Amino acid sequence: KSINFCRTVNMPIFGLIENMSGFMCPHCGKPLDLFGSGGGFRTALAMNVPFLGRIPFDPRMVECADAGQSYLEKHPDSEVTQAYNQVVETIMEAKQTETSETQSAPREEKEQKEETAVMKFAIPVAEGRLTAHFGHAAEFAIVDVENQEIKNKELLIPPPHEPGVLPRWLHEQGVKVIIAGGMGQRALSLFGENGIKVIPGAPSLTPEELVHQYLSNTLATGDNICDH
């Protein structure tokens, strides 16, 4: 919900941190997964935002907060402090990369404009609307966008469903963005390897409506439910 809210109001998202990721046992000092594990990473992957790290919970943080003390200074060797430091390192590395890309932007400006000016979307459809059966969709709407405007739409019949076929096929079609209802983690990885961005959890609308909402940053997505 927070990610969808940020996208609705055009608020940039730097990344996602999984808070209270496990409980630090006061007896053995080991983290316990009270709420399961990997939820934050899966959400970041499904919503296409960077995953920055996991921060476990430590009861001593409550004590430090009540006493007005810095937990990180008082417990510099704790698992929580190490996790915070790792997140900071991840953020710093990302910012350095961002700065480097910004500095090199002038000489790449023309190429970047060409890349962003023309985009090709793929949406699995049934009866003219997005279908949740991604891997078994009978048709895919391929939508061409140029300068933020839809220029063409065609319906293509995909090859017979086999592992790894759709990522290669859509890559050959020049697709850059897929808007889907649900998709498995393996498929998400394969599309990423083929340079295709996936937006899962989209509502059952027409291809034109979905693309327009994506371009205007108003596309509200829900849970990534892989429906076979």
Structure commentary:
With 228 residues, the chain is an alpha/beta fold. The chain folds into two domains: 2-103, Rossmann fold (3-Layer(aba) Sandwich), CATH 3.40.50; 113-215, Dinitrogenase iron-molybdenum cofactor biosynthesis domain (Nucleotidyltransferase, domain 5). The protein has helices at 2-8, 39-47, 59-67, 71-74, 79-103, 105-117, 165-172, 185-193, 207-215, and strands at residues 16-18, 23-24, 31-32, 51-54, 118-126, 129-130, 139-146, 149-156, 177-179, 197-199. Strands 5, 6, 7, 8, 9 and 10 form a six-stranded mixed β-sheet that branches. It has a two-stranded parallel ribbon with strand order 1-4. It has a two-stranded antiparallel sheet with strand order 2-3. A hairpin with a 6-residue loop joins strand 2 and strand 3. The longest helix is centred in the middle third of the chain and has 25 residues, at 79-103. The chain is elongated, with a radius of gyration of 21 Å. It starts with a helix and ends in a 13-residue tail after the last helix.
